[in-house]
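User: two proteins, same treatment. go.

Assistant:
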Amino acid sequence: MFTISCAEQDAAFYFALEEYCITNFPADADTLFLLWQTRPTVMLGKYQNTLKEIDPAYIAAEKIDVVRRPSGGGAIYTDEGCYQYSFIVNGQHNVIDFEPYMDRIIHTLQTLGIPAERNSRNDIAIHGQKISGNAQYMKAGFTVHHGTLLFDTNVNHMAAALKVDPEKLRSKGVESVRERTALISDHVAPTTKRHWFADEFRQNILGQGAHIIELTPEQHEAVQQLADQKYRRWEWNYGQSRETNFSVAGRLPGGRIEIALQLDHYVIQDCQISGDFFSSIDIATLESALCGTRFDKSDVANHLAPVLSGGQLYGITTTDIVALLFPEA
């Protein structure tokens, strides 16, 4: 295992670094682990509609970055009191699998005396309150699993910056973001500093014999260029919504999903699928499967089934989507 030493606090840079490593790793590369921080940032899931997830006025007033991840899942708030981790692993599967990575994170936290536990598809909690969210995507034969650790994050900023779906909070049995969220700093000795936690966490993950490398000036510049060309662009972070004339939304076993259609004489002309779900395929593949299809229950099912036959949407099936589009009277 190896890690990269880097002092940036820009989420766009780190998502570009993940992608750069994927596309420049040798085929037999060892696992790369990154532990990083950001300035105040809202990170959106790949399939989310930006303006439905943030408070734009608050974001602008507080100068909070908005950056879209290349993975699915929900919007999160991060700042200097929050740590992000990334595993980049040689090997790609057909379906999302959080378990091996989350188990490793939980074991490491427990080793540090923190009573962490898995409490949902992609969350780690302490006594039922979330301290970590996880996300995952596959590209070019590699798996990227990344997540967050709330050490002493500003929860007030988190609550104000995000528009959290009330249905999601109710599903967790809570009324607010503050009630749902815990901070690791409240479960360690009062004198524990961020840097001690980060150093101990990193050492436990990496183990003995880990290799620490520095980016060359040329590599650093290449990552910055990728961040400029993709992850800092308005088109990536905001400009992905299209006009529609029919939409449905619901919370399914694998997460919230919203399907917006442009219909002409009950034929689907355009389709946009958004939400906090996870997918092991490019969502454009699923959207394209529906374009040109009659808005008919059996037709839609027949076009979706081949695309989703292998569990490509985590916890969401063809039957789930058809039931959302065509609810029983």
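Protein 2:
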Amino acid sequence: MESSESSANSAEPPSHRWARIVGTAIALLTLTVPTFAIAYYSLGSNNEALTPIPYSSRQIGN
């Protein structure tokens, strides 16, 4: 009986398919959710709020 063979086999972690699936799902969400959030808020923003109102001295006097 060789102890080196049994310890080498037990040192390897078991392969978990569900762990790879969950990891892949987390990676995809991490990449896609910020992209969709940026696109959503960029398209929904009001560009008129970003344009400055020109100064006019006539409006102040009236």
